[in-house]
Amino acid sequence: MQKVTDNVYTDTTLRGCNPSVVVTSDGVVVIDPGQLPTKVVELRTFAEERGPIRFVINTEHHVDHIFGNYFFRGTGTVIANKGVDDNFMVVGPDLDPYEYAKEAVPTDDPEGAAIFPERDVYERDMNRPQVVFTGDVTLRVGEHVFELIHTPGHTPGQVAVYVPQERAVFTGDTVFSECQTWLMSSDVDGWLAALDRIAELDFDYLIPGHGPVTDKAYLEVQRSNLLDWVGAVAAAVAKGWSRRETMERVSFAERYPVDVGQGYMMNHIQTLNAAALWDKLSGTR
Ligand SMILES: [Zn+2]
Fold first, then answer.
1. Domain range 2-218, its CATH number among 3.40.50.300, 3.90.580.10, 3.50.50.60, 3.60.15.10
2. Ligand 1 centre distance from Cα of residue 239 (Å)
3. Model confidence at 20, in pLDDT bands (50, 70, 90)?
4. How far apart are CA 174 and CA 230, in angstroms?
5. What is the average pLDDT value for the chain, to the nearest integer?
6. Cα gap 21→9, rounded to integer Å
7. Ligand 1 centroid, distance to 234 Cα (angstroms)
8. Which of 4, 182, 200, 215 has the fewest CB atoms within 10 Å, measured from its CB?
9. Residues with CB under 5 A from ligand 1 (ion)
10. What residues does each domain of the chain span?
11. Taking the alpha carbons of 37, 43, 46, 48 in that order, is the dihedral positive or negative?
12. Which residue(s) pair with 170 in the sheet?
């Protein structure tokens, strides 16, 4: 684990999100346990060595942020916004989250196969949020305050976790630091508002959902990345490009690599982002 401050740890080297830990005088708070089985178990051990686990926070419902809850069952209280709970491991037309979690194991965590649960076992014990909230919520743990700020955009249940004592904010996937941004079914206007909301906070350390730890200035970089995508697809729509032409011709693949372990998804991300924006901006969906 990378030590960010005296009490904040994260791991930006894994496939999937950046799982993180905050140590307080009265136990530990885990933010997004991650998805790779042996890595999640290591994270749990790391956390328990520093105190009882008080809370496990999920910043969004995507599988890389929630799958590891299974390995934290029987520890701290799992807490998330209602938007996370509503979408928790819901199988969509394009993605079965259980299969997507399973798919990563042979390549990224072969030893994890031995402890990867069968689907029926997982579904029984997935450890979904026990506390579900709307809007914002504040947790007090020991001397620390955790402000869970609802920042919908990337997903409907997105939260940022602000820990003023550590001058740190965990943005979840509202920030993809120096790696490709997954727009998927995002609400980009909401996402831009989320960046504004985070910019109002007073902090030095920005722990993103993916990519290296960064700082407040990166909020503007993320904003530009979103606006560049929207601008390029809006221009394509204005020129009368079809959905297919837009998917083939609009790409920001040169700008960043894909986050750890998913380089093979580059073309998928580009075409998915372009298609999703084309659907919105052309008014056809
Ligand atoms: Zn993510």
1. 3.60.15.10
2. 33
3. very high
4. 16
5. 96
6. 5
7. 26
8. 200
9. 17, 64, 173, 209
10. 2-218, 225-281
11. negative
12. 161, 207
